[in-house]
Specification:
By secondary structure, the protein is mainly beta. The chain has two helices and eleven strands, in the order βββββαββββαββ. About 10% of the residues lie in helices and about 45% in strands. Strands 1, 4, 5, 6, 7, 10 and 11 form a seven-stranded mixed β-sheet that branches. It has a four-stranded antiparallel β-sheet with strand order 2-3-9-8, with helices on one face. The protein is globular.
C-alpha cells in the first residue's frame, strides 16, 4: 500500500516553551486533491492510534522528509490524539538546529501548517468525493510552504516563549514509513 500525504494548513494553536500544539486533520473538512475531493470522518485514526504496538513509531518530520526528524511517539516527545475537532498533535521540539529553526519560524508565523502521511484502510467513493473512515497514520509533518486544507490555517496561534522552558529530547534518523 502506498502512503498518501495531505497538507492541512493548520498552524499551531499554541506554543508554550518548546511545545507546539495544533491539528493535522480537521474532521468533516472537504479538501480538493487533484481531481477529487476528500474528507476525513471523525475517528478515522482511532484504530491506528490504539494499535501502536503492532505498527512502527509515528514521527514528526519537516516537510515529510525522514531525515528531518523533530519528535517521535516512542520517546513521548510526540502526542497524537483525536478530539471533537480533529487529529490533535502536541510535540516537544529538541534543542537542535532543526528544532530551534522550526520554533523560531512558528513564533514568527511563517509555517504553512501540519500534514499527515497515511494509508487509507476504509474509504467510500461517491463520484469524485472520497470519504476516509479509517486510516493508518504513518507520520505527521510540519510544512514550511502552503498547506492544502485552508480552513485549518486558523487553528495555529503563536504565544511567546515561557521563561525557563527546557527540552530534554533525543532525535534519531528514521527509515521511511510502513511496509516495503
Amino acid at each position: 500500500m502506498q502512503t498518501e500525504k495531505r497538507l492541512a494548513a493548520a498552524p499551531f494553536s499554541e506554543i508554550t516553551g518548546r511545545i507546539l500544539t495544533g491539528y493535522a486533520v480537521l474532521w468533516g473538512v472537504e479538501t480538493r486533491i487533484g481531481d477529487f475531493t476528500e474528507i476525513f470522518e471523525r475517528g478515522a485514526f482511532t484504530q491506528t492510534l490504539a494499535n501502536r504496538a503492532n505498527l512502527r513509531d509515528i514521527l514528526l518530520l519537516v516537510d515529510h522528509d525522514s531525515t528531518q526528524l523533530l519528535a517521535r511517539q516512542a520517546n513521548s516527545s510526540l502526542t497524537i490524539t483525536e478530539d471533537a475537532k480533529g487529529l490533535r498533535v502536541q510535540a516537544s521540539l529538541p534543542d537542535t538546529q532543526l528544532g530551534n529553526d522550526t520554533l523560531k519560524m512558528a513564533e514568527a508565523g511563517l509555517l504553512g501548517g501540519l500534514s499527515v502521511g497515511f494509508v487509507a484502510v476504509k474509504e467510500e467513493w461517491t463520484g469524485n468525493r472520497r470519504s476516509v473512515s479509517q486510516a493508518d497514520l504513518v507520520e505527521v509533518s510540519i510544512i514550511h510552504a502552503h498547506a492544502a486544507v485552508l480552513p485549518t490555517a486558523d487553528t495555529l496561534d503563536v504565544r511567546k516563549l515561557q521563561a525557563g522552558a527546557e527540552a530534554d529530547l533525543r532525535a534519531r534518523l528514521y527509515t521511511y514509513y510502513l511496509g516495503a
